[in-house]
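F.,

This is the one I mentioned.
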């Protein structure tokens, strides 16, 4: 594989709970691992409403983007897994608040269940690192 693979880690997002890293950068593309709504301090939010869980997962994504020198406007593709498609409208509203006018490609995938009983998981691809 040509080029270096750089692991990205920030203490401002949840630490990985398995054999993976928060994100990797390779040839100008940032690949962000699935982010559950686990707080940066490691505390769980599985008992919280969907809207709270969505904000925590998006906060993790934003922290990882920042640690990698990216901004929300660098997002190219976002994949969202939701346990229950009835959460789609609430997610769409919250997502729009986080991204403003930027509209990357996106898929919202309904799933029967997520790890630990969470209601949302978000993974993403972002473009080139900012130099300023």
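My design for it:
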């Amino acid at each position: 594989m040509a080029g270096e693979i750089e692991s990205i880690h920030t203490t401002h997002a949840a630490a990985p709970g398995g054999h993976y890293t928060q994100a990797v950068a390779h040839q100008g593309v940032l690949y962000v691992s699935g982010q559950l709504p686990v707080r940066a301090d490691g505390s769980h939010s599985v008992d919280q409403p969907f809207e709270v869980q969505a904000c925590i997962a998006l906060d993790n994504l934003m922290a990882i983007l920042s640690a990698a020198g990216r901004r929300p406007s660098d997002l190219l593709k976002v994949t969202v897994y939701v346990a229950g498609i009835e959460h789609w409208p609430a997610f769409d509203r919250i997502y729009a608040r986080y991204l403003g006018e930027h509209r990357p490609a996106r898929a919202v995938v309904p799933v029967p269940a997520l790890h630990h009983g969470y209601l949302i998981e978000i993974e993403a691809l972002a473009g080139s690192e900012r130099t300023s």
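The CA atoms of residues 30 and 126 lie 5 Å apart.

Talk soon.
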